[in-house]
């Protein structure tokens, strides 16, 4: 039976890489898929991975109707054996409903990939609707790691290397960005709660209060 499958995880855990792998595996078996994405790091109409892989896609912007697009494609003589929707957290709930309708009415598998929660640990509306409707939810097994080495479970937004917890829910960015721009970092829950990013941890480690005494300039012996 066709399914709506939601592949979820933090940033930097390989969601887009898996989407591209699914596309590769199925296309090499003669199947043809429809690939959609929104706000990909490589630009409009692209599905890309941090490993450097990229393929063309349909940009599913605000107001885009997945069901109508697939029906029009099929009615024009096109072929679609499955659907891939990356960056699904950015989709509106009604667009997730359209993906579910593709599964139910057109009997196509739909593979959706997205982040579950935002930088404030709040569910994205698109991800929430996927949790509500998906036939299956798969948490990616390639674990992203916090700077401390623990499993990363939360996405942090940073400005100048400092974590922020206020602002618009959707601000496009990526991990490993220069500290002077808006970026993102994956953290374990403990360090997300403490707002302790890698940059903040380095600053704390270099604080004069915790530096060891230089033997060449040690205490003079005077009180």
From TrEMBL:
Pfam families hit by this protein: TK (PF00265)
InterPro entries registered for this protein in UniProt: P-loop_NTPase, Thymidine_kinase
Keyword annotations from UniProtKB, A to Z: ATP-binding, DNA synthesis, Kinase, Nucleotide-binding, Transferase
Annotated GO MF terms: kinase activity
Family: Belongs to the thymidine kinase family.
KW ATP-binding (keyword) present: yes
UniProt catalytic activity: thymidine + ATP = dTMP + ADP + H(+)
Protein name: Thymidine kinase
EC number in record: 2.7.1.21
């Amino acid at each position: 039976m066709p399914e709506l499958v939601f592949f979820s995880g933090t940033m930097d855990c390989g969601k887009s890489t898996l989407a591209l792998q699914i596309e590769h595996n199925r296309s090499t078996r003669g199947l043809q898929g429809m690939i959609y994405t929104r706000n990909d790091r490589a630009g409009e109409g692209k599905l890309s991975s941090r490993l450097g892989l990229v393929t063309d896609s349909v940009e599913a912007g605000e107001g885009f109707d997945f069901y109508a697009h697939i029906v029009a494609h099929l009615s024009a003589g096109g072929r679609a054996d499955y659907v891939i929707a990356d960056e699904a957290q950015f989709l509106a709930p009604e667009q997730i409903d359209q993906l579910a309708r593709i599964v139910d009415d057109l009997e196509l598998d739909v593979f959706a990939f997205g982040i579950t929660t935002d930088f404030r640990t709040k569910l994205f509306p698109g991800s929430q609707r996927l949790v509500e409707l998906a036939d299956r939810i798969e948490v990616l097994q390639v674990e992203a790691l916090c700077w401390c080495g623990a499993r990363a479970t939360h996405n942090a937004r940073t400005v100048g290397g400092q974590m922020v917890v206020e602002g618009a829910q959707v601000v496009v960015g990526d991990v490993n960005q220069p500290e002077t721009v808006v970026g993102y970092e994956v953290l374990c829950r403990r360090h997300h709660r403490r707002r302790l990013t890698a940059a903040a941890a380095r600053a704390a480690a270099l604080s004069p209060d915790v530096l060891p005494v230089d033997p060449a300039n040690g205490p003079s012996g005077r009180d």
